[in-house]
Amino acid sequence: MSDPSGCLVDHLDWLPVAGPDGPREVPLRETLLEAHTFTGLVPDMPTMLPVLLRQILVPVVLDALGGVDAEAWARLMDTGAFTTEQRETINRYLDERVDRFNVLDATAPFGQAPGLAHPGGKVHPVTVLMPHVATGNNTPLWDARLVSDPVPLSVGAATRWMLHAQCWDTAAIKTAAVGDPQVKAGKTTGNRTGPLGRLGVVTLLGRTLFDTIVLNLPQGGRTAGDRPQWDRPPVDQTWSTRTPTGPLDLFTWQGRRIRLVPEPSSTVGPTQVRWVVLSAGDRIDGPQPEDPHTCWTIKKDKTKGSVRYPRRHLPGLTGWQGLDSLLTIDRDTAGYETSGLLMQAASATLADDLASDYPLRAATCGMVYGTQDAIVSDVLSDEVPLPVGALRSDLAVRGSVILVCEQAQALARAVDHLAANLLRAVGGEPPARGKGQQPGTKLLHTLDALVRRFLTGCQGNPSDDRLDQAHTAFETLAERAARSAADELLHRLPGTAFTGRTVTKKDRGKPITTTYRQASAERFFNAAVRKTLTHLYPQTPPPEENAA
């Protein structure tokens, strides 16, 4: 018999939301039906946001409503909440499957493999599901707790981290499960990262949690056989390599076999989880399937034609530094393409189903793995305002938004080149690109607030005159910041930089002499600034010669 305390639908407060009374955790049914009253999710870490949307909220709505086309999507965004009929449909859907949404059920626990066990009864600490917590050999000697005494998690928190592992787990060798026919020497090798580990994830955020759910609903008809994991038979210790049948299967992909080991609290209180069993799970066959939560790089191949690869986020870059790929709707004009969800938003904007002044935001996140993808080296995340008008090629705001982002990066490069030339002028050599602290990186940190302010202002769908005024104001402040960064470099120079240094190098056997001095470095910097800031310094074309 199922333990009602593990019911994710009504009994267990486990989904973190932000409401009028502040952040709190609520059951699944309340999260969906009252989504219009919540401003959004409050995840444990940025990578948890797409997990909760893909693994539970979006599939329930998509499966319950029977798929969503462009017209139905527009109606949902227009009403801003589920209609009475839709609420009844979702209620009926959850009531029919309430037993499959019980994380403590003995025969079919939610998202788990019942009876999963390691040889000898081995279990892992629950922190193995949490990429930010050191476990195993990575645990420092001075850690407050031993591996044999992990911090207990509530059932709700353990469920969230279980779903997180299904999406982001590392590709390390896994301890074999008892009864797995594909075991080799007690281990399972060849594991891949979770499905999201290979993507640069882009999640759309709206005014409310309801809008966020709708913005992340993939449009289109239902594929035959496409079902979420709770509508399939419970998994066991065996796994296979196959292709997802559709978005519901992809979103709820069981990339790992997991079983939570609940135990009563040491005092009178709720059940806790300190141990888990984790082993290999299903693997996606072939190339990366179509995923609406990532942008794509398009490369030409002589035999295959155009080949699409998911774009990964790069460490050290903000979300707006890749804004051009987020706004690329026409794949024929660039070597990349925006996500499927942003394509939907762009189509809705053209059809006036999404207002040009809608406060759309894009949350980007990703993981950087190391040592054969067996460890997590870094977690990347950002959230940027995304002007809806920039998704339309016929509006001036699109060009201004892309230009502002390019100008900020160009000014940073100009400061880096200035620093390199000044260093050469005093007899040094600049560090290799990507090595050490670059002064342009510090400037980008200053310009970051200006770029985000400009993007937020463009969400109001400004007129062309207001847009030009805002762009000019940005360039004024950006130039001030760039020249301040340059002055900081110039004030530290010794007197030898004035006379400079002459360097002779051979190019194809011919000697080439170059003189580096402070004056030429400043001249090149000023020219780069004037070339970049086109509103402050309009580029005048050369005068035409009079015809004889």
Word description of this protein:
- This protein has 548 residues and is of the alpha+beta class.
- Helix content is 33%, strand content 17%.
- It contains 14 helices and 19 strands.
- Strands 4, 5, 10 and 11 form a four-stranded antiparallel beta sheet that branches. The chain has a three-stranded antiparallel beta sheet with strand order 2-1-3.
- A hairpin with an 8-residue loop joins strand 10 and strand 11 (272-280).
- Helix 2 crosses helix 5 (155-168) and helix 10 (396-425) packs parallel to helix 12 (464-490).
- The longest helix is centred in the last third of the chain and has 30 residues, at 396-425.
- It is globular, with a radius of gyration of 27 Å.
- The model has no long low-confidence stretch (mean pLDDT 87).
From the structure above, extract its key features.
548 residues, alpha+beta, 4-stranded antiparallel sheet, 3-stranded antiparallel sheet
Give a short summary of the structure.
This protein is of the alpha+beta class. It has helices spanning about 30-35, 50-65, 70-80, 85-95, 155-170, 210-215, 245-250, 325, 340-350, 395-425, 440-460, 465-490, 495-500, 520-530, and strands spanning about 15-20, 20-25, 40, 125, 155, 175, 185-190, 200-205, 240, 255-265, 270-280, 285, 295-300, 305-310, 335, 360-370, 375-385, 500-505, 510-515. The chain is built from 14 helices and 19 strands.
